[in-house]
Amino acid sequence: MKSKSEKDYIEQIVPYAQEAQKAFGYLASVLIAQACQENGYGLDNDCLVLMEANNILGMKRELLNDTWTSNYWDGSYIVKPTPEWYNGKLTYINDAFRKYASIRDCIMDYCQFMRDAKRSNGSYKYRDVLGITDPAELIKQVRTRGYCTDPTYDYSIVKIIAKHNLTQYDIKEKEVYNIIDITAENHAPRTRTLPIKYIVMHYLGVPNADNPYLYNGGYGGHYNVTRAGKIYKAVDPRKGVVWHCGGGLQGNGGHAFYGKCTNYNSIGIECGVCADTDAKDLSGDSYLWYFTEETQEAAAWLVAQLMKEYDIDIDHVIRHYDVTGKCCPNPYVLDNRRKTSWTWEQFRERVKELYSGAESVREGCYMTTFENVHKGVNGADALTVQRLLFAQDYKGADGEVLKLDGDFGTNSEFALKEFQKARGLTVDGDCGPNTWAALLGKA
Ligand SMILES: [Zn+2]
Q: Which residues are CB-neighbours of 21 under 8 A, at least 6 positions away?
């Protein structure tokens, strides 16, 4: 039956796509988009024949039938002309398509095909795509394994997913991490003598590198989280103390926990960190450092586990900065939200969610709007713009290095316009949403 609208068509499919994802591990968003693509949202007259057959995925009759047996198709079919790509040319051929009792059967049949179909050598043709959680990667794998002859297929699918925000229908499994135990490979650390009261977060401070084994002559973290979100346990916190948050005061801020939190009563977590490789300024307080989503998600999960294991509350989860004033972990001290970095508060919120097992509200909630910054503006956002321009080596009209004073004057405006010019933005000296996105590496 013809559908009333694109939305109406999608809504019919959602529950079955989710049922199929639960049963087979094939993303609902991709399934729905494929059904939209194959069938013109059920609005296209050309697709009515397939709609009548409940074949919303354009399933052909012959689908490596001799290698698997469908639980959802009784062998009946229809014949219809269909476009095919051969050697880069579009042609039409008559083709036989499966006829189903319901669209649910069609969706389940497709997923079973993905799971069970084999190549002539007996290996599974598509099975490895089940469980892929990135829609773009999933559809690319499906196409390149030979499902579809249209070279633009994955592009079309990704576009449909974005247009209708279809990832909202994906069933998100709770992230599960393995802690990789490498404690045996490290030297015996100093013996723990005081009870553990604090968890202290750090950044590695080395651009685009991971050091899972970091525990060097007593310095380092008990745990190291890599940029890809892998967690390494280098030193058992119950047994050993490592040097990670001691030493004298640095800088002008932080150190609310100086003298309270020490190496002897805390656990240290080091996080791998990224920076733009062409960065001119990569000092400890540079505005160019950022964390990946994967690092932050894994670190938040690890902190939530350790809070339970050591009976620590969120107010005892602190930054190195809070102890000595060092700009560590840089993205959570500057809170400049560069690229994928969250703010410290957002990290704490995520830890709390993972600790309590509450439903995640993370998606979309970490977008932050900034005030427009232009000549005459004073304050924190103006300073952030100055720091971002400074870090990328933009200079004032006088050729001098920008003053980082939060007072957006002629030189700051000049540098901002140079940045806008270089990035192909409107050169108006006003830092609005587009310029902010470019400055923060989000566009
Ligand atoms: Zn640190």
A: 27, 28, 31, 170, 171
